[in-house]
Each structure stands twice: as structure tokens, then as C-alpha cells.
Automatic annotation (TrEMBL):
This is Mannose/fructose/sorbose-specific PTS system IIB component. It comes from the Bacteria. Keywords: Cytoplasm, Kinase, Phosphotransferase system, Sugar transport, Transferase, Transport. The lineage of its organism: Bacteria, Bacillati, Bacillota, Bacilli, Lactobacillales. Residues 1-159 form the PTS EIIB type-4 domain. The keyword Transmembrane helix does not apply. It comes from Lactiplantibacillus paraplantarum. It is found in: Cytoplasm. Its main location: cytoplasm. Signal peptide: none annotated. Pfam families: PTSIIB_sorb. PROSITE patterns: PTS_EIIB_TYPE_4.
Length: 159
């Protein structure tokens, strides 16, 4: 996807690491959050926008709007960091015809009905299946908390 410099799964969405390490390190001019619930909640959107660094635009939108905007080339000339909470969102984008080559998994908190597969990443059965489906579709899935960490192939954590 032209214009996208990093696509990240992080259930915290825009927070300290994303704002200070990823966004500034990648020199992005936009942080995009695709989340149907947050996109329809003005309070949550406002909180996320406050967490974004000064001078970096935010788009907090639904999956449908994201697919439409990306296919229309709206972000082609930008440097966008895309953040989602769950792998299902990215699988939906791939299945809608978007060309996602690589995904970085940062943080997926320990929750009810999850199994920890690596430090800071716990998955439900469905999330694991979604990641496996992305890999099967040729998407490279990596694990990396911060840009300074070595990038690891996420498939090794699924064994």
C-alpha cells in the first residue's frame, strides 16, 4: 500500500511507544487507526488524538472508510503509520483487495481466553487463526516492540 511505512497491531493504539518511538522514528506525517468502535466514539477519538505527537495528523476511521480511502489513493503521497487492535482488521483489508506486504505485531495484552505466545503478545484462538491466514496469504508478519528491537518472524511464536 503506497504511502504506508508501517502497519502495526497494538491494542493500545496511539500511546507513548507509538507516538514517540514509531511515529517520530519513521518520520510519519499521519497516524491512522482503523477501529470501528473507536471511530464511532468521539470521546475515544479525542483521547487518541491528544496522544499523537504535535504536527502529526490522525485518521481514526472505520474499516469501510479505510478501504475506500486507501483504494482511492488518498494517502499515496504521505508517510502513514497504520495501527489496529486486532489482526482481523488487517485480514479484512487483505480480503478487500488491499496489498499488505508486511505487518508488525507489537502489543496484544493478556486477556480472558488468550494464550501468551511471546512477551507482550497473547492471542485468542481466533486471533491466532487470523494471523495464520495472513501468513498463508503471503503477508510477512513480524514481532517488534520498538524500532530498536530486532525484528523477529512471528511464525516462530505460533509453533
Amino acid at each position: 500500500m503506497q504511502g504506508f511505512v508501517n502497519i502495526r497491531i497494538d491494542d493500545r493504539l496511539i500511546h507513548g511507544q507509538v507516538a514517540t518511538r514509531w511515529a517520530t522514528g519513521l518520520r510519519v506525517n499521519r497516524i491512522m487507526v482503523i477501529d470501528n468502535d473507536v471511530a464511532n466514539d468521539d470521546v475515544q477519538k479525542s483521547i487518541l488524538r491528544m496522544a499523537a505527537p504535535s504536527g502529526i495528523s490522525t485518521s481514526i476511521i472505520t474499516e469501510e472508510k479505510a478501504i475506500t480511502n486507501i483504494k482511492a489513493g488518498k494517502y499515496d503521497k504521505q508517510r502513514v503509520l497504520l495501527v489496529v487492535r486486532q489482526p482481523r482488521v488487517l485480514l479484512n483489508l487483505v480480503e478487500a483487495g488491499l496489498d499488505i506486504q508486511k505487518i508488525n505485531i507489537g502489543n496484544m495484552s493478556n486477556r480472558e481466553d488468550t494464550v501468551q505466545v511471546k512477551k507482550s503478545v497473547s492471542l485468542t484462538v481466533e486471533e491466532r487463526q487470523d494471523i495464520e491466514a495472513l501468513i498463508a496469504k503471503g503477508v510477512k508478519v513480524t514481532a517488534q516492540m520498538v524500532p530498536d528491537d530486532a525484528e523477529a518472524d512471528f511464525a516462530k511464536f505460533l509453533k
